[in-house]
User: Which sequence fits this backbone?
C-alpha cells in the first residue's frame, strides 16, 4: 500500500472542493480518501508514504482526442505552427532539412538518410498573404528530398515535386472518393492533397520513414505527463497501436491508452476479435473512427450553405450516408462503439441521422443491443435544432475547447451571419449531453489546463476577444474539468474505473501547484503541473 499525504484532495470536479489531505492506494486502485491521521494506521510497517508537498490532487486528466503518432512524430519534424508567412515556413523547413542532413552525416548514414522530410502545422489562413502554397515554393528549399508537410488541421498535405514523383502522382491521377488534388490552370498538381487524397503520404508516414515510432511515443508520453495527462484516447492507425503494444510489452507504457480503430482497419480488428473495452487496463480498444467530412481550416467541412468566399462549395463528404450506416451496423454488431468526425452543420446532421437509424436497428432487433457509447468527434458547427439530439440519442459530443479560441476569427469570416451553434458547450450541457474534452493534438497543444481556460473564458491566453467569443457558451471551472475527467471516462466506457478519486477506481491523479477552482480564470493555463500519478505510482514530478 502507498499513502499520499500533505495534499488537498479534490475527489471530483463536480464537488470542486477538497475532501481530505491524503489518499490511500492499494495496488493500482484507490483504497480510501480522507485525513492522513486516520488513514496512516492502515499502513503496514515499511509501506510507502509519499509527501505531495501541499499540492492539489485532482482526478487524472484524460485527453479524449489525440493523434499520438502524429504528435510524437511532430516532436522530431519541422514545426510550422507559429509561422506567419510562406517565407517563414520555407525557412523553417530549410533549417530542419539542414539539421537532418548534418545528423545523417554525423551518424554515418549519409547519403542514404534522410529519405523523407516531414513537417506539421502550417496554416495559410494566418499568413500575412493567406494564399494556399504550392509545390514549386517547396521545391526551392527542398530540391530532390521528398517532403510532406501536414496542415494545422491535419486534413491537407503540402508536398513537393519529389514527393509527388515518389508517390506516383501526376496530372493523370484522378481525385479519390472523399478527397481532391489541387490543380493549376494547366491541370497540373500543385502539391496540395486534401482529405483522402493524402492517404499515400499517410502510408509513407506509417512505414517508418519518419523514424522509430516506438521511441518517439515513449518520448511523447513524457511530454504528455508534463501537461498533467494520465491517459489519452488515440485516433491514429495500426502502426501507433503496434508502437503502444511494444511499449506495453516492455513495461514502458505508463499512461492509459484507449485506442481507436480507423474505419479502413475495421476488417482487421474484426478478424482479431477486438471489441470496445478489449485489452487491459493500460491499452484497450476504443471506438471505430469514421470521417464524415473535412475541416474548417481546409474549407472542406460539409455545410448546408457554402462557406463564405470558399471555392470548395458545400465541403467534402468523406463517407457517404450509405457507407456510414453500413460501418455503424457492422461495428455495433461486433461490440465496437463508433466515433464519427463531423465539423460542419450538414455533416453533424447526417451523423445524428445515422445514429438515430442505428438506434432503430437496435430496437427492431436487427443490431444487437449493447451499452456502447457512440460519439461525434468535434461537433463544431451545429444547426440549432440539432443540439438537443445529442442527449436524446445518448451521443457524446467529443470536443476540443482550444479549437474555439484558435478558430473564432476564421469561423466568423467563413460562417458569416448564418444562425449556428458553434462550439456550443453550454447549450449541449443544458440540453443534457455529456461532454468529453480533448485537444486534437497536434492540431492544438495537448494542454488540458489550456483547454479548461478556453472552455471557461472563450478567450485566448492573451485575453482576446474581450469578454470571450460567444460568451453565452462558457462553462464553469467544474464543468470544464469534468470534460477531461468523468466526461472522458464516460466516452470511453470507463466511468466505473476512472474520472473520480474514490475507492475501487484506478489511482490516476493529476497533481497541481494551485487550485483551479480558486485562481482567476485568466490564470488557469498557467497553473504549474507538479506531477502525474498513474496506477498509484509517481510517473512525473517537478
Assistant:
Amino acid at each position: 500500500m502507498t499513502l499520499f499525504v500533505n495534499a488537498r484532495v479534490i475527489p471530483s470536479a463536480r464537488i470542486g472542493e477538497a475532501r481530505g489531505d491524503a489518499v490511500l492506494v492499494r495496488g493500482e486502485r484507490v483504497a480510501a480518501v480522507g485525513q492522513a491521521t486516520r488513514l496512516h494506521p492502515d499502513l503496514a510497517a515499511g509501506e510507502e508514504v509519499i509527501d505531495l508537498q501541499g499540492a492539489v490532487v485532482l482526478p487524472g486528466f484524460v485527453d479524449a482526442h489525440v493523434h499520438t503518432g502524429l504528435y510524437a512524430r511532430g516532436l522530431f519534424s519541422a514545426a510550422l505552427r507559429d509561422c506567419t508567412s510562406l517565407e517563414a515556413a520555407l525557412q523553417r523547413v530549410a533549417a530542419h532539412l539542414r539539421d537532418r542532413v548534418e545528423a545523417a552525416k554525423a551518424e554515418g548514414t549519409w547519403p542514404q538518410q534522410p529519405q523523407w522530410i516531414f513537417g506539421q502545422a502550417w496554416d495559410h489562413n494566418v499568413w500575412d498573404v493567406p494564399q494556399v502554397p504550392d509545390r514549386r515554393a517547396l521545391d526551392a528549399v527542398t530540391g530532390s528530398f521528398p517532403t510532406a508537410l501536414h496542415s494545422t488541421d491535419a486534413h491537407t498535405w503540402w508536398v513537393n515535386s519529389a514527393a509527388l514523383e515518389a508517390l506516383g502522382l501526376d496530372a493523370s491521377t484522378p481525385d479519390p472518393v472523399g478527397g481532391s488534388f489541387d490543380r493549376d490552370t494547366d491541370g497540373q498538381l500543385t502539391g496540395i492533397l486534401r482529405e483522402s487524397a493524402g492517404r499515400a503520404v499517410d502510408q509513407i508516414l506509417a512505414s517508418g520513414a519518419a523514424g522509430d515510432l516506438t521511441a518517439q511515443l515513449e518520448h511523447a508520453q513524457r511530454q504528455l505527463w508534463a501537461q498533467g495527462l494520465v491517459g489519452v484516447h488515440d485516433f491514429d492507425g495500426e502502426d501507433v497501436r503496434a508502437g503502444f503494444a511494444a511499449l506495453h510489452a516492455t513495461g514502458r507504457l505508463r499512461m492509459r491508452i484507449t485506442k481507436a480503430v480507423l474505419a479502413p482497419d475495421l476488417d482487421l480488428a474484426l478478424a482479431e476479435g477486438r471489441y470496445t473495452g478489449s485489452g487491459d487496463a493500460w491499452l484497450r480498444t476504443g471506438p471505430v473512427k469514421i470521417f464524415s467530412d473535412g475541416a474548417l481550416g481546409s474549407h472542406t467541412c460539409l455545410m448546408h450553405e457554402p462557406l463564405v468566399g470558399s471555392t470548395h462549395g458545400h465541403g467534402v463528404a468523406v463517407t457517404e450516408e450509405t457507407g456510414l450506416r453500413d460501418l455503424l451496423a457492422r461495428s455495433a454488431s461486433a461490440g465496437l462503439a463508433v466515433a464519427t468526425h463531423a465539423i460542419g452543420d450538414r455533416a453533424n446532421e447526417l451523423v445524428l441521422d445515422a445514429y438515430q437509424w442505428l438506434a432503430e436497428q437496435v430496437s427492431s432487433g436487427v443490431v444487437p443491443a449493447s451499452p456502447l457509447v457512440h460519439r461525434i468527434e468535434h461537433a463544431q458547427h451545429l444547426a440549432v435544432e440539432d443540439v438537443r439530439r445529442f442527449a436524446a440519442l445518448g451521443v457524446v459530443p467529443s470536443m476540443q475547447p482550444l479549437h474555439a479560441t484558435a478558430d473564432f476569427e476564421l469561423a466568423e469570416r467563413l460562417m458569416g451571419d448564418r444562425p449556428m451553434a458553434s462550439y456550443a458547450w453550454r447549450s449541449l450541457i443544458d440540453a443534457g449531453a455529456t461532454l468529453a474534452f480533448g485537444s486534437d493534438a497536434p492540431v492544438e497543444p495537448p494542454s488540458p489546463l489550456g483547454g479548461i481556460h478556453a472552455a471557461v473564458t472563450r478567450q485566448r491566453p492573451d485575453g482576446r476577444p474581450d469578454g470571450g467569443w460567444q460568451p453565452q457558451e462558457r462553462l464553469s471551472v467544474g464543468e470544464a474539468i469534468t470534460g477531461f475527467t468523468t466526461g472522458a471516462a464516460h466516452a470511453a466506457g470507463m466511468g466505473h474505473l476512472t474520472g473520480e478519486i474514490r475507492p475501487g477506481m484506478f489511482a490516476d491523479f493529476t497533481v497541481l501547484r494551485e487550485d483551479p477552482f480558486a485562481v482567476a480564470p485568466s490564470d488557469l493555463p498557467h497553473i504549474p503541473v507538479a506531477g502525474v500519478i498513474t496506477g498509484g505510482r509517481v510517473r512525473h514530478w517537478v
About this structure: The mean pLDDT is 95. The radius of gyration is 23 Å. Residues 261 and 288 are 5 Å apart (CA to CA).
